[in-house]
Amino acid sequence: MRARPVQQESLRSRILDRISDFAASTPARFAVIVFASLIGIFTILFSLPVATTSGERAPFVDALFTAVSVICVTGLSTVDMATYWSPLGHVFVFVGVEIGGIGVLTVASILGLVISRRLGLRQKLLAAGDANPLRIRKGPVSESQAVRLGETRSLLATVAISVLVIEAVVAALLFPRMLLEGVPPLDAAWQSVYIAAMSFTNTGFLPTSEGLIPYGSDWWFLIVLMLSVAFGAIGFPVIYVLRKTWRHPLRWSLHVKLTLVTFGLLTLGGAIAYFILEFDNPATMAGLGADQRILQSFFISQMARSGGFATLDMGSLDGSSLLVTDMLMFIGGGSASTAGGIKVTTLAILFLAAFAEARGVDDMEAYRRRIPQDVLRLAVSVVLWGATTVAVATVAILLITDDVPIDYILFDVISAFATCGLSTGFTAATSDGAQYVLAATMFLGRIGTVTLAAALAASTRRQLFRRPEERPIVG
């Protein structure tokens, strides 16, 4: 009579051990499987009749697309998010973006820490896989980086605390402004918490059909949103270092310095570009004063990096502004952040490599530190995988779509890949086939091109010989 529970417990332990071993040995594949499983679960949830305001079952393409957009914290949608989903559906959206924004492996590690009150090596490796893409492959990893493996427990605490604190502060700052707008207190409380989560996770969903129209020129509201998006986009490793040493910039790691400097330059450069390119556009900024042009330029520049909120019609932007937005979205935010894209440090590494080549030196250097060549190879791989994903998705949609300008298609494809959420209106109006392609693009963009490559390559092979060297002509 007593043997059966023991056998069940033994079987459960073996299954858990197998899962734990698989997660620790191949965290990249584990991340892909968990992301795909979560998308499947939320697709089922959004397919429930109680998830829609009409009480009818949502079409499969809408349920799947919403689930992918939520878990991948993208912000693109095929339906009017504010009116199509019921209050329970919005709860599903809220929970999904929190899980997806923080990171699946990080959430799993935090839950394990809360339950067991300790963090073993396997859990540290899982969390480190979210914090540093260099760890997704087997083999030694240099610890001279933003967060060392021994600091993983502190990083997890920083993640959990920063999510709660930043979102609470943002909600508290937005709440009184909504009351001044005439929003009832209970609605204002829910909307402020909802928007705080959507801004920090860089998702961009809004709980009301009018969106940001009531606050489209409000300095307070838009600046709070920009700061919330920026904190989510710089990355948890950067927040961790700033929390410990914000008074001592000289002690910041190279990763933190590259992230903050590149992030700031791209935001400023994007704002200047929008200010100039949209200055005389009657559909966007031509009728605005100088102060509003500056505000809107910085807001678009920040949101184009992954935020997804918009105060102007993206489809009305000048073609040159659409191209600038494409570039900003493709770059995205910081590593191990709620933002997407190839990441700002990837761009910084490529520019440092080009600068070193122009100077005729072998080593990439920045802030009196030498950057190893394997980081450059990883950066090149990220850009190539990202460009390939965008190109294939764009060609696939062009084949099944008629009479749509290619710049609109490319815009929404890059937005899907970079999990940005800005749209020209193409995503909601296109066919089911194109929406499936965009959903796949969102998935590939969120799990990360490097993670996908490592998941497909079973493990890193060490070659025990070197072939003869020969230099092809380049350039």
Automatic annotation (TrEMBL):
GO terms for cellular component: plasma membrane. The keyword Phosphoprotein does not apply. The chain crosses the membrane at residues 30-51, 63-85, 91-115, 155-175, 219-242, 254-277, 327-355, 375-400, 436-458. Keywords: Cell membrane, Ion transport, Membrane, Transmembrane, Transmembrane helix, Transport. It is found in: Cell membrane. It comes from the Bacteria. One of its GO terms (molecular function) is monoatomic cation transmembrane transporter activity. Pfam families: TrkH. Its main location: membrane. GO terms for biological process: metal ion transport. It is a multi-pass membrane protein. This is Potassium transporter Trk.
